[in-house]
Amino acid sequence: MRRRYLLLLLSLLSPSAMADWHVEPDYSRISFVSVKRGDIAEVQRFTNITGMIDGQGAVRVVMPFADLDSGLALRDERMRDLLFRSERFPQAELVGQVDLAQWEQLPVGESEIGTVDFKLDLHGHQQRLKADVMVSRLAEKRIQVATLEPVVLKAELFDMQDGLKRLREVANLPAIASEVPVSAILDFQQRP
DSSP 3-state assignment of 82? Predict the structure, then answer.
């Protein structure tokens, strides 16, 4: 009987049981679409995302503004400097809690749909949001989480209206939409 308890304890303390799930930046992306002049849409993305899910299901994902990529260096610089004010706010951060045990029990090759509640810290302001996601078990130590539909962010909730105004003035634009749809695909790999 004692031996069984000892084996159970050792299995709980094994490296795989204590391993966290880390974001793999090469396979992860958070992107958004901005609209200017009423009908010109531009896709922008954060490519060097970091973060993890710890053993208790606490999630933290970081999007550094230095890695914003719109395909145009001048636009990236203006977005970082004027809208995001990256010298003061160098990154956006998403935190939340997930049922990691349920995700880990998902068989390899299977997916499930769910809702994730999270808090987004952007531009010095925090907002609670929800996203419908598909969680897929790609391999024994690999889980992918993808939004099923974009999450719409409103500039006024993050006090970014002045930044939008400065962008309009610098680029000589009549309008830039103050609401943007954001999509995410996050690839997590389990490692100590």
Answer: helix
Query: In this predicted structure, what is the pLDDT of residue 144?
Result: 98
Using one digit for the tens of pLDDT, what is the confidence trace for 78-109? 999 999 999 999 999 999 999 999 999 999 99
Contact by Cβ (8 Å): 80, 66: yes
Which residue from 129, 118, 105 is spatially nearest to 61, judged by alpha carbons?
118
Indicate the burial class of 68 (C-beta count within 10 angstroms; 0-12, 13-18, 19 or more).
Answer: buried
Global confidence as pTM: 0.86
Of the candidates 148, 136, 66, the residue with the CA atom closest to the CA atom of residue 104: 136
Residues in the chain: 192
Token duo for residue 153? 């962010």
Residue 67: other Cβ atoms inside 10 A:
16
Instruction: Write the CB contacts of 143 (distance below 8 Å, at least 6 apart in sequence).
Output: 21, 103, 106, 135, 136, 137, 187, 188, 190
Instruction: Find out whether 118 and 162 touch, Cβ atoms under 8 Å.
Output: no
Burial of 84 (0-12, 13-18, 19+ CB in 10 A): buried
What's the rounded Cα separation, in Å, for the pair 19 and 3? Answer: 24
138-185, pLDDT tens digit by residue?
Answer: 999 999 999 999 999 999 999 999 999 999 999 999 999 999 999 999
SS3 22: strand
